[in-house]
Amino acid sequence: MQPDTVPNYQGFASRRPEWSLPELHAGLQVDDDVVLTDVKGRQCCPNCQKSRSLYCYDCLVPLTTCPRVELPFHVSIITDVDEQPSKNTGVQAAILAPGQVQLHDLDHCPEFDKERAVVLYPCDTALDIEEVQPDSIDRAFIIDSKWKRARRLIKHPAIEGVRRVKLKEHKSAFWRFHTKGVAEEGVCTVEALFFFLNALVEKSKLGEAFCGPHCFDNLLWYFSYQHKVVEKAALERVVKKRRQPLIEGKENDGKEELNGLNELRADAPSGKRFRLEGGEGEDDRQ
């Protein structure tokens, strides 16, 4: 479906009927996801034997072939014990960039040089990307938690004195809506990493090996596929909701719109009846 033909999926979230599914980021060039489309139901993780869909979020194991993304530095995604791993999109980054992305709490940080580390965190003292010196990062920290918890975690001794860096505002394509009081521009973890890396590329802060415009698009390989599946489910709900008045004879002027929705539905990717890691729902991450 082309972006200008996608309907407004309002009513997708019952708790926020005015909320609509955001569009996927324009211009993404990710690898073919046919191996994900071919997945039939849930699978057994070869490590823990638990039932999973596309990957195991506990073992960080892909259950299909997947692309591998090379990063210019290590990434620490700071996890919160109160958060469910299944909702952490940072898991996707760890699977797609194995050995370079780690998930851990601040009490179990790997050794690192604070002078060559940054923390993605918007605050008054945070640096803009333009202020970051080229090739000055060996490790980046991303805090994956709700805002109230993040405000406490940023004060942890493990990252005390580490440079704070902020991103320009980006609109999230995540299907988990944000709670009241948090900007809709807040992005999920894998999006934050993606936008951070792209900003470094745009400002020529990385080496020649990472100067291409689409070096890091595959970080959103799982994300983009899941977005299509959620979009398909949302479209099904829209069609069902708008068909009912027609069946009851209460609305006859919406047939043309309904026919258009049915055409879009026919062209949409096949929806899976499995539970998505990073599923729909409420969120208030940064």
Describe the structure.
The protein is α/β, with parallel strands linked by helices. Helix content is 25%, strand content 12%. The chain is built from 6 helices and 11 strands. It has helices at residues 34-37, 90-96, 147-153, 189-202, 221-247, 255-267; strands spanning 43-44, 51-52, 55-56, 61-62, 74-78, 101-104, 117-120, 139-143, 163-165, 176-178, 281-283. Strand 1 (43-44) and strand 2 form a beta hairpin. It is globular, with a radius of gyration of 20 Å. 31% of the residues are buried.
Index terms:
tRNA-uridine aminocarboxypropyltransferase 1, about 290 residues, disordered C terminus, disordered N terminus, two-stranded antiparallel sheet, globular, about 10% strand, about 25% helix, 5-stranded parallel β-sheet, 11 strands, transferase, alpha/beta, tRNA_Mod/Golgi_Maint
Return the structural class: alpha/beta
Rg, rounded, reads 20 Å
Instruction: Give me the strand/helix succession.
Output: HEEEEEHEEEHEEHHHE
Cα(first) to Cα(last) distance is: 29 Å
| Tertiary shape | globular
